[in-house]
């Protein structure tokens, strides 16, 4: 009789582990966790090399009683009453159950085989064939999702008491057999050769397996697979959840550990082979897939691999290359390859506001086609093939010069984007302090009704399809979304299929509803979001209750420390002329409350509190010469470069009250031709004190701020957001999968910080950062956008300074004596608390497994990872001489030498993926969708003193002046496009994992306790942030200096928890949107 004293629930690793709903649930689960089997907790465990037992003939299983695996107690009872645990010829009868979350159709659950491996005895079971079990049955889980379960009794050798791993194989159908067993994991037994199948045409048979549960009379062991098992794979191994350093791996699992890594690494040959859907190989590739066409204006240079355009690597997709080294575009616009387990869950995909980015863009274009009344096909016909071809045709038609959508007419016209959402409160959005009393009013500022194709009589934008057309579009969008689910029902996994539906589809039916399955169709229909909702913009929080905030200098400065891009500001510790700027004391002294530029700079340089701050975007001049020569650059986009100097204002008692811009320096490609005496590094200086006091030149000052924010928008999106989070993290994950086993404690700690990153980055390469993608369309640099991203990586990115404290130090934003920020800097203040909790957690966790620095040095998997990240993932900066040495780029040279350094490396990655990304991602809608606050485009060169544009602006009446300003900023189509896109990107999905939630990959109790302490710290941080936001002394949160029309805007972007939706708060573990 097998006897194990305690029951066990082993939870293993998988990136897409389902989220635990609450801490209480975690605590309850923890109480049920069996004592660990990690050698770290069993120092006296003897590891004796034993000969593997000879294979036994397959057991003849006895069907067991039905049992609900959600109920451990009932499961055990069922096992006992059904004879589980009884011995037979030295074997013990267990009950085994396989669960999936995909629909029960086709051959799901069939032709699966298992081998169970014991951790301690190293004994392996004979091959268990599930086809002798009862057929799979449909199940509904407590959260309402449906799938299938297949269970049966198995006879395991008596030596198997603590399964440490389960090998799983899925055979193909008869027609797919090739007779060759895959040895991918090195696990298949000889006797099974000839059984495993692999369809070389890619038509593999596969199952999504969520869990495999083994129940004996006294114990329950659950292995979480959460992965697709394919007939193309041969044997797959899934381990129990306990963590082991490589040297501590139980002997029974060593080969499997190495075999699994080898399968993910591939060989030098297979790494570069064309990818099939079922492939699992991770390898690196340059960004050679950004072109959207074979030639002409849709070709983009390769980023990465050259001195001129260094860049991190991305996941290799291997579609084959064109002659010039660019990767071929996928055929028939199919999705770029991605390992199936890295794809979005169905919930996540659904939460892309009910559609993928492609759907969104398609809907948008369909609407534009309608609005422009072109002869393009109907929206319904357009949708399935939208985005490419017709897209340009449509856009070029409606952005025609005479098109009424070319410009907003005045500021209220911009606000009208929110008229529908604000309803009777619309008037509260209108600014009250826009003009000084003496400003010249227009003769007639009453806005008479002028309904048009694009506007209603009350001036609201009418960005809507007719009800008929909208319904037609909705129907097609619903079908599009059903597609992947339907695909999965045929046994072919596709995008986001980790959910299940009724399996009542009729594949051959001509009627859509029948073909998709009526219940499934109903489900999707109910969830359909009307296309019209994409064009009903909610009031952004930067405006809501703060009608005058956007035009105030105090708000401009506040956003540099508490807005969407709070990590570019630096303390000014040298005179601007030292770095080639034209800003001088005359421009700023009048705003410095009795001090001078020279005084304040020298005080800061001597170690005193800085009162002047700088944001320098001169790097945006990098490609001016190329853009000027390029006939492919569109007209009407102007890339400015420049700087802003800000002053930290104080009250009579010396308390800080606001950060205000005092001088803005701007230049564009023609500035130096018009001003030959100007230094090449300098622009035209716009002085607050000289411009904002005069009602005529106030417009110039406002425009200078707006043009600056346009630059800020580009640097935010390309630098702070894409480059510094999404892009740089990808190689760390590719190498993690290749070099560090899922059994490794570092894998278990870090995997949640990469959840969905590969998919969101792949989607970005397909639709956002590619040639003519959304980013190129909405920024002034257009086809040079990603070249700027490469330039920013080349000039500014160092891993060593991505750790928050180092970043703040490098920018001079903290007092070196205390490490505390010099000023009310919410991003830094909340971020440092988060950083501190993160590093403390990581330190505790790592010391559970590493007992000395030498154990870190000798960890072969870890060091292979770190070396590969540097040499294969981020090779360019050192290779091409952009950095002096490894210390500058990585913080230290060579292998990771100590636990402290390892903690710093991992915490930096985790911070970038969580806090840093959340801070720059989830405020995008509320700050950057409203073009008066932030316009992504600048369409005209900034006027210079005395030129015609300056005269035009300074002599116009109010409304005309507003209309002129708006010709410099984003047009309505771009504004709507940006709003739609950033709304999507600011959105938390329902299955998001935020830092206040458990890392389910951790099983060892001490590791769980460390995780629990971190979660508690995150809850405490939420409370601390709330209190800071309620304290009127915190000018950057409370906004007191801005008065009642400015109003407070609490800083919540680093509050860890969030509901689903656009919430302007919540810190997910990973870059997943
Ligand atoms: Fe993001």
TrEMBL record:
One of its GO terms (molecular function) is metal ion binding. Its EC number is 1.13.11.-. It is an enzyme of class 1 (oxidoreductase). Residues 34-71, 169-203, 301-334, 486-513 are annotated as: Disordered. Pathway: Lipid metabolism; oxylipin biosynthesis. It comes from the Eukaryota. Residues 190-202, 320-334, 501-513 have a biased composition (Basic and acidic residues). Coiled coil: none annotated. One of its GO terms (biological process) is oxylipin biosynthetic process. Pfam families: Lipoxygenase. Residues 175-188 have a biased composition (Polar residues). InterPro entries: LipOase, LipOase_C, LipOase_C_sf, LipOase_CS, LipOase_plant. Keywords: Dioxygenase, Fatty acid biosynthesis, Fatty acid metabolism, Lipid biosynthesis, Lipid metabolism, Metal-binding, Oxidoreductase, Oxylipin biosynthesis. Plant lipoxygenase may be involved in a number of diverse aspects of plant physiology including growth and development, pest resistance, and senescence or responses to wounding. Belongs to the lipoxygenase family. PANTHER family: LIPOXYGENASE (PTHR11771). This is Lipoxygenase.
